[in-house]
Write a structure and sequence with these properties.
Layout lengths: L1 E3 L6 E3 L16 H4 L17 H10 L10 H25 L1 H29 L15 H11 L16
Helix pairs in contact: 2-3, 3-4
C-alpha cells in the first residue's frame, strides 16, 4: 500500500515518514511515535535539523520560496558554503588559477537560486516578506539590517508563511 504526498503528489511507501521527493513530513499518529505530540512540517519530521540534513534540505528546496527556514538551518548553510568556497579556492590555487576561477564561478551560479530561496524562507520565519531581501542593494546599512534579521529568533506563533518549525 502507498500514500500520496499532499505537497508534491508523489506516491510514497506507506511506511515512509517523509516524502523522498520534496521532504514533506507525513502526519504520524501518537501510537507510531510513542508520544502525543505531532511532528512539525520539517524535512525529517522533527523540530531539529543537523548540519548535513540542512545541506540536503538546501538542495532539495532548490527554488522553494514558500515556508519557513529556522535560524539554525540558515547559518548551517552559510557555514557549508564557506567551507565549500574555501575548498574550491584552495584546489584552484593548487591546480590552476584559471581552473579555480571557473570552479568558483560554476559553484556561485549553482547556488544563487537556492541561496535566495533560503534567505526568503528565513525572512518568512521571522514574519517578514521576502521583499526585505532588496535591502541587500543598500550598501552597508542594508547588509547590517539583513544580518540582524537573519540572526533574529523565529516567531513563536504560526504566521502567514506557515507553522513555526522551532516552537
Amino acid at each position: 500500500m502507498s500514500k500520496l504526498c499532499s505537497k508534491c503528489g508523489v506516491e510514497c511507501d506507506d511506511s515512509a515518514k517523509y516524502c523522498l521527493h520534496c521532504g514533506n513530513s507525513f502526519i504520524v499518529s501518537a501510537e507510531e511515535t510513542g508520544y502525543n505530540a505531532q511532528p512539525r512540517d520539517n524535512v525529517y519530521g522533527s523540530t531539529d535539523i543537523s548540519f548535513t540534513d540542512a545541506f540536503i534540505k538546501y538542495w532539495r528546496g532548490y527554488v522553494d520560496f514558500s515556508g519557513r527556514a529556522r535560524r539554525k538551518e540558515y547559518w548551517y548553510i552559510v557555514l557549508w558554503n564557506l567551507i565549500i568556497g574555501i575548498s574550491i579556492s584552495l584546489i584552484g590555487a593548487i591546480i590552476s588559477n584559471s581552473l579555480g576561477e571557473m570552479l568558483e564561478l560554476i559553484y556561485s551560479l549553482a547556488t544563487i537560486l537556492p541561496a535566495i530561496a533560503l534567505c526568503v524562507r528565513r525572512l518568512h520565519d521571522i514574519g517578514k516578506s521576502g521583499l526585505y531581501l532588496l535591502f541587500s542593494f543598500i550598501p552597508v546599512v542594508g547588509w547590517i539590517i539583513l544580518l540582524i534579521f537573519f540572526a533574529t529568533d523565529s516567531d513563536r506563533m504560526d504566521n502567514q508563511y506557515g507553522k513555526s518549525i522551532k516552537y
